[in-house]
Every structure is written in C-alpha cells, then in structure tokens.
Specification:
alpha+beta, five-stranded mixed β-sheet, two-stranded antiparallel sheet, 5 helices, 285 residues, 9 strands, Pathogenesis-related Protein p14a
Length: 285
C-alpha cells in the first residue's frame, strides 16, 4: 500500500489499520449534517494540545476488547430483562459486537485528550454514530486498564439511578446521556480508544472514548418494550445474555423515525385586515 503518497493523511493511517474495504477518504465525502469536520479528516494521528508529553495510547488487546463487550452486554441484558429498577423488558435489544473502524475513530478522538465529543465520527456503514467519553484520575500507575475500565463503565451505567421508567432524566436531574447510549436498542457495534497521560505533573489520567453504531435521536425511544424480553428477536437470543438478540440478528441501524425529530414550525400572525403581519419560526419541543 503506497502510503508515502499521502503525507500522513488520515486516509493512509486508516488504510493501514483497517481492511481495505473500510478505508475511506474522510475529507471528500459528506459524512455529517451541517458540514461538520470529521474526526479523521486531515488527522495525522498526533496527540492534541490538551495532552501531556507523557500521553500514551493504550493498546486494546483481545482481553480488553472482550472485557468491554462483556460488561456492556451484561448491563444491557440486565436492563432488558424487565426485572431491574422499574425498566420495562426490551422487545429486540441487540447484542453489542466490536467494530474495528469505530475503534480506530475512537482512538483518533481519544488522542485529543477530549472534554467534549467530537463533531463527526460517522462511517459509510453507520450513519448515526453515538459517542461516550470520560476519564478517571488516579494517583498511581498501579491500576490496570481493566480496573479503570470497570470503574468508568460502572459510572456510566449507574446513571440509571437518575432515570425514569422511560429512560429519560428525572426532571431537573443530572444528565444520563451515557446510560441512555449504553441501552440504545440498535447499538449493534462499538469501538473504543484508551489513553493515559500525567495530569499537572502529578496525577495520572486515563481517557476513554467509545463509539456506538447508533446514537439516540430526538424522541425516538431508547428501546422498544415488550411483556417478555427478546420476544421480537427474529434469529433467536444470545445464549450468554438471553434477554438480548443473537449476534447475527439483522438491524437497520440507519433508519430514522422522522416523526420523533423536533421539526421547524411556522407561526403566522395576522393583523386586523387578515394579512400576515409577520412570521415567526420556532422548534417544537
């Protein structure tokens, strides 16, 4: 592969890391709405300005990938059962699998030592990619990646305590976006990136970014409900997580219920003669 032709372009980097079938040009195609910049466009894989000189991308070996998948599917199976914290049983919740392209994009994102999600991380396969990110600060290097991952994934999941039965945040309560993303019914695939660096010359900080094949959009439900868990699965259930569908269950992760998206509504005001005096636009809530 002639990567020397690309001067450290994102296309070259991803072509090396991924199979040729998923090495796209992330600058020339329209990936996200509002012409937002894709995380892989003109990204040479260098560390961001917010990272310290000691920043180090942690390799996600098979053990770490399997740990992430097990924990997330364990949490999804728990909620999908219909016997946990008042949440209804899930009709057809997917089992999460690993996706190399989502993982590579997550690595590019985590190498910025981010505080906010990146603007765009969609792919040709997944048009509405969701993202969760966070960090753990600790005072010693003795903590393993698995220990820190378990801590952060657990924090995301424990947001359920602030959710109502419809998986919405309790009015006036803290954000539960991470928990809602973990439970997104059609989040069939995931890819994560992990980075460690020294924070303020003393504390160690581990960042984690995870990309999901599907994000929550508008007023679409996080998952469809049923009286019996996994009753809508067409290809059977996951033997390890029986409240989730089998790994080969087919989902359309890109279809959007446009009725669930807030739309632009035009209000026309009339004067005494019945003519328009002005038009005002506002978004429905």
């Amino acid at each position: 592969m002639s990567c020397w032709l690309y001067t450290l372009s994102a296309l070259c980097i991803l072509a090396n890391l991924l199979a040729p079938s998923v090495a796209w040009n992330y600058c020339s195609e329209h990936w996200c709405k509002e012409a937002r910049s894709h995380i892989a466009c003109n990204n040479n894989g260098s560390y961001g300005r917010s990272c310290s000189k000691e920043a180090e991308l942690r390799p996600l070996n098979v053990q770490l990938r399997n740990f992430i998948l097990h924990k997330i599917n364990f949490y999804r199976n728990k909620v999908a059962s219909g016997n946990f914290s008042g949440f209804a049983a899930a009709h057809r919740m997917a089992s999460v699998q690993w996706d190399p392209e989502l993982a590579t994009l997550a690595e590019l994102a985590v190498k910025q030592c981010p505080r906010q999600p990146d603007e765009c991380r969609n792919t040709r396969r997944f048009k509405h990619v969701g993202q969760i990110l966070g960090h753990v600060i600790f005072s010693t290097k003795r903590y393993s990646d698995i220990q820190l991952l378990e801590h952060k994934l657990g924090n995301w999941f424990r947001q359920y305590k602030r959710a109502n039965s419809q998986l919405n945040a309790v009015e006036g309560g803290p954000d539960i976006t991470s928990f809602r993303q973990l439970m997104q019914e059609r989040a069939t695939h995931i890819g994560c990136g992990i980075l460690r660096h020294v924070h303020r010359h003393r504390w160690h900080k581990q960042f984690i970014v995870c990309n999901f094949a599907r994000e929550n959009i508008g007023r679409e439900p996080v998952y469809g409900v049923a009286t019996k868990p996994a009753s809508g699965c067409k290809m059977g259930v996951n033997p390890k997580f029986p409240n989730l569908c089998a790994l080969h269950e087919a989902y359309d992760v890109n279809v959007v219920d446009h009725l669930a998206i807030p739309r632009l509504r035009i209000k026309l005001k009339y004067n005494e003669e019945g003519m328009h005096s002005k038009a005002a636009a506002n978004r429905t809530l």
